[in-house]
């Protein structure tokens, strides 16, 4: 198998999503989508109405999750997505934090 160095690079994205993103299955859809893509990390609601998530995995897959956040679940109405990239911290699996 040819080595594709771009796909071997793992990255971490720390995302904050604002808008109507709580009570619309945003977290469950995020978890399901991340698991389908093989992304590690977590997602949780914040007291201020935003959703916070961390995605760890290959660059391309993490980037596609960040893009997905701009739409999110079908019932969501996303106003803004802010993201900070960093080095992976060893997340394993994807879960909803409560």
Task: Tell me what you see in this structure.
The active site is at residues 27, 45. Residues 12-98 form the Acylphosphatase-like domain. This is acylphosphatase. Residues 79-98 are annotated as: Disordered. This protein has 98 residues and is α+β, with helices and mostly antiparallel strands. The chain has one domain: 2-Layer Sandwich (Alpha-Beta Plaits), CATH 3.30.70.100. Helices cover 28% and strands 39% of the residues. The chain has a five-stranded mixed beta sheet. α2 (26-37) packs antiparallel against α3 (59-69). The chain starts with a helix and ends with a strand.
Instruction: Tell me roughly what share of residues is in helical segments.
Output: 25-40%
CATH architecture tag: 2-Layer Sandwich
Percentage of residues in DSSP E strands? 35-45%
The backbone outline, from C-alpha atoms, is: globular
- DSSP summary, beta strand count: 5
Cα distance, first to last residue?
41 Å
Quick structural summary:
Belongs to the acylphosphatase family. By secondary structure, the protein is α+β, with helices and mostly antiparallel strands.
Provide keyphrases for this structure.
single chain; 98 residues; alpha+beta; Alpha-Beta Plaits; five-stranded mixed beta sheet; 3 helices; globular; disordered N terminus; acylphosphatase; Acylphosphatase-like_dom_sf; Acylphosphatase_CS; hydrolase; acylphosphatase activity
């Amino acid at each position: 198998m040819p080595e594709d160095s771009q796909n071997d690079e793992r990255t971490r994205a720390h995302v904050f999503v604002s808008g109507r993103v709580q009570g619309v299955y945003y977290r469950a859809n995020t978890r399901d989508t991340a698991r389908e893509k093989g992304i590690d990390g977590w997602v949780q609601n914040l007291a201020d109405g935003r959703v916070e998530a961390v995605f760890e995995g290959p660059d391309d897959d993490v980037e596609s999750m960040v893009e997905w956040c701009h739409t999110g679940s079908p019932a969501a109405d996303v106003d803004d997505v802010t993201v900070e990239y960093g080095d992976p911290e060893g997340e394993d699996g994807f879960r909803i934090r409560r």
